Amino acid sequence: xxxxxxxxxLVQPGGSLRLSCAxxxxxxxxxxxxxxxxxxxxxxxxxxxxxxxxxxNVVDSVKGRFTIxxxxxxxxxxxxxxxxxxEDTAVYYCHxxxxxxxxxxxxxxxxxxxx
Length: 115
Hints:
115 residues; mainly beta
């Protein structure tokens, strides 16, 4: 089972993108869904997480600009990104943790913010 992330692309500063991530096959019930991002040469960093009950955690650097949401029936997670900045440029990875503490990662989708 893999997670399939989509929605990345090239956008101008101030623009918006919506990332989606869904499992490619059957997956156990998921407790925690999240998004991470990574710039070449740097460690992967947390962007946002959301639990099955809707409790959200968003890092300060994107607070007020990014919104995480999920569809529990589909084990799908979304990241709405508004007011994008060049420093948001990265490969974005989705992440899932099941109730049995199994972890799943998506393949990554590239977001480039540039004029």
